[in-house]
Write a structure and sequence with these properties.
The chain contains ten helices and ten strands. By secondary structure, the protein is α/β, with parallel strands linked by helices.
């Protein structure tokens, strides 16, 4: 089976061609094209939805045919077209969804709509079979979720952020400190040079017994702290701020995941999303899992961000379990039922 997969939920247009034998947990990535919009949005300090949508329109057709060319195939060879449908920026999603529908319809190919968060989790499937049940933790610029998976397609959200996502908090705090967007990589680097105990930071896990997170308080705390120091003419070492912020986020994530793994008696953890490129978070999860005897799966850094390969991996299992989408397929910015088959 050859899957052509399209991802356009935020500020990367991504197209991949992936081969996977039906019924086997094997993947061969034939092409993986990504057109990043970082340079476009850098001047604004964050993603501007309308500009993102226009950039997707400009990139998606040439990028798709480059992916096909690099894979050495044509649309005649493709067996299934997959596309991200939710959640994300609605304008950006619609570019990908409508292009994928046109491509599938005009070439007589089956179409599969894929949930973006499911796609991030599926980046872990590329390296071979993962046995369910497992707990998945997804952290990116727009999403922070803890998921219980009873199969590779049957997901239930058990925890999520109630406001800011982890990546969003890193970006907003980093922007206040004068770092260039996106701020996550630079905050990771600076955290390695700072003192993680320099500043007391509020925990970002909810203390109501749930597995939820709230990061708006941390963001506000740090911004107020920096504003107060500025008004007093005091100098704050941003390396210490980065280290302290990173420490409390890692501690809260580990705390919630340890509780979740214990409650469900599960010994497999999948972590995914752009924030999992953070070296401190990866180390914290590795340390926790080693201590608890939990098997940890994290994608290579190149598959942590948005990409088409993860959408193809998710689509394979949806397709093989009977999932199909028709021409009424639409994009949705969010959904109360995250895992409803689309």
């Amino acid at each position: 089976m050859l899957y052509l997969a399209i991802e356009s939920s935020c500020d990367e247009t991504a197209v991949a061609v992936v081969s996977s034998p039906r019924g086997k947990d094997e993947f061969t990535v034939l092409s993986n094209e990504i057109a990043s919009q970082i340079d476009i949005h850098k001047r604004f300090g964050g993603v501007v939805p309308e500009i993102a949508s226009r950039a997707h329109i400009e990139a998606i057709s040439p990028l798709t045919y480059k992916a096909l060319s690099d894979a050495g195939v044509t649309m005649t060879d493709i067996d299934c077209v997959a596309v991200t449908t939710e959640p994300g920026l609605i304008g950006a999603l619609l570019v990908g969804v409508n292009f994928a529908k046109s491509l599938a319809f005009s070439n007589g190919k089956p179409l599969i709509g894929v949930n973006h968060i499911k796609g991030h989790v599926a980046a872990n499937y590329i390296n071979g079979r993962i046995e369910a049940p497992f707990i998945a933790f997804v952290a990116s610029g727009g999403h922070t979720s803890i998921i219980r998976a009873d199969s590779l397609t049957d997901f239930t959200t058990v925890g999520r952020t109630l406001d800011d996502a982890v990546g969003e908090a890193f970006d907003k705090i980093g922007r206040r400190m004068g770092l260039e967007y996106p701020c996550g990589a630079e905050m990771d680097r600076l955290a390695s040079e700072g003192d993680p105990d320099a500043f007391a930071m509020p925990a970002v896990h909810m203390k109501d017994g749930s597995f939820n997170f709230s990061l708006s308080g941390l963001k506000t705390h740090v911004i107020n702290m920096l504003n107060t120091a500025e008004m007093k003419g005091e100098t704050v070492d941003i390396r210490d701020v980065c280290a302290s912020v990173t420490r409390v986020i890692c501690e809260s994530v580990v705390y919630q995941l340890e509780r979740c793994l214990k409650k469900y008696g599960i010994k497999t953890l999948l972590a995914a999303g752009g924030v999992l490129a953070n070296s401190h978070l990866r180390l914290a999860l590795e340390t926790m899992c080693e201590k608890r005897g939990v098997t940890l799966h994290i994608p290579p850094v190149g598959l942590c961000g948005d990409n088409g390969v993860m959408i193809a991996a998710a689509a394979k299992y949806e397709f093989e379990s009977g999932g199909r989408s028709d021409m009424t397929l639409d994009g949705r910015p969010s959904s109360k039922d995250d895992w409803k088959r689309v």
